[in-house]
Design brief:
With 304 residues, the protein is an alpha/beta fold. It is 39% helix and 16% strand. The chain is built from 11 helices and 8 strands. It has an 8-stranded mixed β-sheet with strand order 1-2-4-3-5-6-7-8, sandwiched between helices. The protein is globular. The protein starts with a strand and ends with a helix. The model has no long low-confidence stretch (mean pLDDT 94).
């Protein structure tokens, strides 16, 4: 499989960032832009999953959002705003102060397409990446062939919040700053938010955690990503603007981003198709890759 790597600059201002990307498959094939979630490196779009898409005759681009992985870090910046009031405002669908917002991350995605000379792409987002993808589809309809939203939400007012255990797992810090503690915490989080119907072996969870740590460990970026989610408020007005064929995929067992979120997105986007999967939670189990690729291809096929 052909893999091209590089950095895309998002603009010429002092706030511009460099996005690390991997571009797979034949450049002449229909492009698919994969957007990962909060604090998640492009590694979570597993290479084997991407290969399955490439094998379907697609060009696949995965990248690190700003503040994570090998992309630029927004160092030394924070709002100083208290977390609890921001979470309450988010529950009510209202925005809060943030260093950058989901809109800024959507602009990053569009800048990456510009860098790669891609006019239009199938846009696929998971978790926070699904929120970014909704904004891309609304603000850049001419760049979006189709939209696929995986275990995400539109943060509309009064949606049921994440499960307490899952939210604590996401926000709790490792016991200390050693690699062993950080890896152990990542394994613990994966077990709590992962798919109960498709549990992964402990040794695989640990190997993935070590890979992520050794590639790029940057917890400050996770906090700013969370602030961006809280900062943007409800995305309902974006959903109502989306015209691209849309599929919304959600695990029935997801307690971090409850299925209410996926249902809300599907209701808000005209003509969207909702797919709920038994035993799936907030990850992409290898056992479901063929199913997920099949659902994505069905959506992609709606646009020549």
């Amino acid at each position: 499989m052909q893999v091209r790597t590089g950095y895309a600059k998002t603009g010429d201002s002092e706030d511009s960032v460099a996005l690390y990307y991997e571009d797979m498959g034949d450049p002449n094939h229909p492009p698919v832009l994969l957007i990962m979630g909060l604090g998640a490196q492009l590694l979570l779009w597993r290479t084997g999953f991407c290969e399955k898409l490439v094998d379907q005759g697609l060009r696949v681009v995965r990248y690190d959002n700003r503040d994570v992985g090998l992309s630029s870090k927004v160092t030394g910046r924070h709002t100083g705003a208290k977390l609890l009031p921001r979470m309450v405002r988010s529950f009510l669908g209202r925005p809060s102060p943030a260093v950058y917002t989901l809109e800024d991350l959507a602009d990053d995605a569009a800048a990456l397409l510009d860098h790669l000379d891609i006019d239009r792409a199938h846009v696929v987002g998971a978790s926070m990446g699904g929120m970014i993808a909704q904004i891309v589809a609304a603000r850049f309809p001419h760049r979006t062939k189709t939209l696929s939203v995986i275990f995400s939400s539109n943060n509309q007012p009064l949606l049921p919040p994440p499960g307490p255990q899952q939210l604590r797992a996401l926000l709790q810090r490792p016991a200390d700053s050693t690699q062993e503690a950080i890896v152990a915490n990542a394994v613990r989080v994966s077990k709590i938010i992962g798919s109960p119907g498709y549990p992964r072996p402990e040794e695989q969870l640990r190997a993935d955690a070590i890979e992520g740590y050794e590639r790029a460990y940057y917890p400050a970026g996770i906090a700013r990503h969370f602030a961006a989610v809280l900062g943007s408020g409800s995305l309902l007005h974006y959903d109502r603007q989306i015209t691209a064929p849309t599929v919304v995929i959600h695990g029935k067992a997801d307690r971090l981003m409850r299925p209410f979120g996926g249902r809300a997105v599907a209701r808000a986007i005209k003509g969207a198709r909702l797919v709920l999967i038994d035993g799936m939670a907030h990850d992409l189990p290898e056992q479901l890759w063929d199913h997920l690729v099949g659902e994505l291809k069905t959506n992609f096929a709606q646009v020549p």
